[in-house]
Design a protein that fits this description.
- There is one protein chain.
- α2 packs across α3.
- The chain has helices at residues 2-38, 47-59, 78-91, 95-121, 124-135, 138-145, 150-167, 173-188, 192-206, 215-239, 246-263, 265-287, 289-303, 315-331, 337-344, 348-360, 368-376, 378-408, 420-427, 440-444, 446-449, 452-461, 474-478; strands at 414-417, 430-433, 466-470, 483-490, 499-505.
- By secondary structure, the protein is mainly alpha-helical.
- A five-stranded mixed beta sheet has the order 2-1-3-5-4, covered by helices on one side.
- α19 (420-427) links the parallel β1 (414-417) and β2 (430-433).
- The protein has 23 helices and five strands.
- Helices cover 68% and strands 5% of the residues.
Length: 515
């Protein structure tokens, strides 16, 4: 038995060892850069502290809430929240456990990338190339360390695709295992519902001539997925009154209302699709430049002698990724930043799929691996720098201001802010979110509350005492008599011309005429 397990371990190490080693080397490089830039390990996104706040309250028995006693669902991943709450319960910490979990799921992406290319090409060398590419993919490394669900999202999506491709011709209990995984994947990130819908459509297409033979298995799979999703839907219904999360109500619905209200559906849909696909294609090529050059060269070199498609990227992966991008662009039509913000965290699996699609078409040449990796390394300079600077800014502004509020305000004071994560976590004060992430009633009225007078009345009705916002917030500039500046620091949102500020609100000035 011992010999058998040794053989298994040696086989696993031979297949994945180098790729996993490259991935952990990338993690170390990013972590060292983070420490040198920020002076400590932290999170580059304020949103990571939103998860920490929800997880702390959940672990301490207060349920799903940001403010204790106010149920809400202002988080983007039900599964990541449960994992964070469990990690906090076991360790009493957030930063290191959340990073550790992200790293583990990132390593899982490396393994699944190998399996995905292998099932598509049945070529072990190409499978290893796909694993190496994934291991050195800078956006994946950054998202693995960011304290959010990015690597979990990519891991669950890629694994679901792999299971679909492996078992698509085996309508049996295997489909139920796949359905179990897709249910978990949707709990990891709602966008996985788009992936699953396309997978179902692909199954129907594959069995279109004898669909009756697979219908029962497909229905059972869909019911299983729905059953696993059900707890999150129940939480949403009890907190927002809708099946949707607070983040969806606060971000997606207002964006759609404004965008399509301006353009109309007939013009808005094509604009959203074009801007989404153009942005996604541009960044895919920018992230994998040598892969694209190699494929173009190979293809046209082959066409000199005969026409063929053997050297084209895997169409299934590429079309699948493009479809998900198109649906996401229509859902959240706010421009290119929605595609690339935070190193592609909204569509991280689709960028990996694009890279793996390119890998499947590469010819077996010894120097291809070196050229492929050299083309990806320049992205390290940009992504690693942005990641480290993000940690530094979050610590210098959001974390610091949250601690300042805890030390300089009363426990009963209410703080209004558009960056609720670290402010809420470290201040330990009740938060009013001006963006509506944790207030469903605000989210549903958000486009109305963009009116300054209505927002001012909302702040007053909620008895807000302090305001933590960027100094470009128009309301603070329009009524300087109401807002007393207490603390300010430049560099909000990586813009040195914008300051993050804390104001004390003097409601007694409300009755006086606006100067």
């Amino acid at each position: 038995m011992k010999v058998k397990w040794q053989l298994v371990a040696e086989s696993v190490f031979k297949r994945y060892g180098l790729a996993i080693g490259l991935y952990f080397s990338s993690v170390i490089v990013f972590s060292v850069g983070e420490w040198k830039t920020a002076g400590k390990l932290g999170f580059p996104f304020d949103d990571s502290w939103i998860f920490a706040q929800y997880a702390r309250n959940l672990a301490n028995g207060y349920g799903f809430c940001f403010n204790i006693g106010e149920p809400s669902s202002g988080f983007t991943s039900f599964l990541w929240l449960l994992l964070c709450a469990t990690a906090y319960k076991l360790t009493g910490e957030f930063v290191l456990p959340m990073k550790f979990m992200g790293i583990l799921f990132g390593a899982g992406c490396v393994v699944v990338a190998h399996q995905l290319v292998d099932v598509l090409t049945n070529d072990e060398r190409k499978a290893k190339w796909g694993a190496y590419m994934t291991a050195l993919f800078a956006p994946l490394v950054a998202n693995s360390l960011a304290g959010m669900e990015g690597s979990l999202y990519a891991f669950t999506a890629l694994t679901g695709i792999y299971l679909h491709l492996r078992w698509q011709r085996q309508p049996s209990w295997y489909w139920l295992l796949e359905g179990l995984w897709w249910g978990i994947a949707i709990l990891a990130r709602p966008e996985n519902l788009i992936f699953y819908a396309i997978v179902v459509a692909d199954k129907i297409w594959q069995f279109r001539t004898y669909w009756k033979k697979v219908l029962i298995w497909l229905i059972l799979q869909m019911l299983l997925v729905a059953a696993i999703m059900f707890p999150w839907v129940v939480v949403n219904l009890s907190t927002t009154g809708t099946p949707f999360t607070g983040t969806y109500l606060a971000k997606v619905l207002p964006a759609r209302k404004v965008f399509y209200g301006h353009w109309g559906l007939a013009i808005g849909f094509p604009i959203a699709l074009i801007q989404g696909w153009v942005s996604w294609t541009f960044y895919s090529f920018a992230l994998f430049p040598t892969l694209v050059v190699l494929l173009v060269w190979q293809h046209f070199n082959k066409m000199r002698y005969q026409f063929g498609t053997a050297n084209l990227p895997n169409k299934w992966l590429l079309i699948f990724a493009a479809l998900v991008t198109g649906v996401q662009a229509i859902q959240f039509p706010l421009g290119t930043w929605t595609i690339w913000s935070g190193w592609g965290r909204y569509l991280l699996p689709t960028y990996l799929m694009a890279g793996l699609s390119f890998v499947t078409a590469l010819k077996s040449m010894r120097w291809v691996l070196l050229v492929m990796l050299l083309g990806m390394l320049p992205s390290y300079k940009v992504v690693m720098s942005e990641y480290a600077q993000g940690v530094k800014v979050t610590e210098r502004l959001n974390v610091r201001f949250g601690k300042w509020l805890r030390e300089n305000t009363q426990p009963s004071d209410i703080i209004a802010t558009h960056d609720i994560g670290a402010i809420g976590f470290f201040s330990q004060r009740q938060i009013f979110d001006t963006q509506g992430l944790i207030h469903a009633d605000v989210a549903l009225r958000l486009t109305e509350l963009w009116d300054d007078n209505k927002m001012l009345n909302e702040l007053r009705s909620r008895k807000v005492s302090y305001l933590a916002v960027a100094d470009t917030w128009r309301l603070a500039k329009m009524r300087p008599d109401l807002f007393e500046l207490l603390l300010a620091e430049e560099g909000w949102n990586f813009d040195v011309s914008r300051r993050f500020c804390i104001y004390r609100i003097h409601w007694e000035q409300m009755e006086k005429p606006n100067p």
